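Two quick folds needed for the group meeting slides. Do the first one here.
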Amino acid sequence: MGFNIPPIKTPQGWLSIYHAVGPDKYYRLGAVLLDLDDPSIVRHRTPDGLMQPETDYEIEGFYRGVCFPCGAVVIDGTLFVYYGGGDKYCALATCSLEELVRHLLSCLRN
């Protein structure tokens, strides 16, 4: 698991988007909520990837099968995650920050 973007502070914990490599050698994005007082404690983690390579620009490229987080920002409640696709393209994925945190809170604690 690798962290590439600074964690985002939420009332429920530090949200961090990470990448990990699966058995198929594809890089996927996942999310964790870390403890506000001790970020070394993982409170919640998505059991499966939030995003995986699916489109041509993510599957083909310098490295096949890559979704790799590069940066993130929250604007008006929307989380914008900038990510690399295929180690060749820069792309953008968005979601509601509140919905993502709610999803994480529904995931089992580690």
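Then this one, please, same format:
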Amino acid sequence: MKNPAPAPPALDPVRWLSNQPYLLLSLTGLFWAGNIVLARHVGDHVPPITLTTIRWFGVFLILLPFAWPHLRRDWPALRAHLPLMVLLSAIGFAFNNAISYWALQYTQALNALLIQSSGPLFVALWSLVLFGVRLTAAQFAGITISLLGVLTIVLRGDLGALASIAFNKGDVMFAASLLSFGLYSALIPRRPVTHQLSLISFTTFCGALLLLPFSLWEFSTGATLKFDLLTFATLVYVLIFPSTLAYLFFNRGVALIGPNRAAPFFHLVPVFGSAMAILLLGEQLRPFHLIGYALVLAGVVIASRQAAAKG
């Protein structure tokens, strides 16, 4: 009598998910889009600087048990590059996130999502200014087209408004956060060689420490947390999804398919977010949004095609 065939191994959902780069990167875009829409919705419940401070302290505490052995081993390298590490913490975690949350008190989530599409282009501009990385003709054309798209969104489709310089301050603040993120991204290749958990743990903790005095100032002005179910749900979502899981998913997706192939998934953020803002916040989709987004997306595709060909 023949022995029965062995049963197939049970499916491990975590292992399966960890080997699905396109799903991981799509979920990253969804989580980041939800972060923008939710922050716009709860602006009167959670002050922006306080939210950012809690976000990065929380992520640090979540990751610390896993990161501690790597932090101990990598501390000499981090300490040797301390000025750079503090700068990365300030521009990539403290200022960038706090100013973007603050901006959402003055602009629509839809505008913020669409302006965010230009983020990769700020990276290219900082790389050129700081390190002389020259742009190809395609990259220059892409940056020009995408910046036209950003202007279309910021000016609400009225290019004549340039004459009056009547910018919405929320749009300008959100663009400033992208400028900061672009500098952070351009400097990241110059960081010391450490484990990824060491890098994220150090920069989140340092960023939160840098924000703490400003959070205390914000509290002194009367901007305090409203302790209710919405605030609790917001903090849970921000800590778990756009912070911890999104960074882990993004890093794993890039490891599986490489940065060039992963980069286009960044532009799922405004796609997911626009749908959320319209469905959940009741914001109106206007023609200048569509025109601006089309210009930004076209510019990024043109700018990245040459780089992707070399990757």
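Slide caption for protein two: Confidence is low (pLDDT under 50) at residues 306-311.
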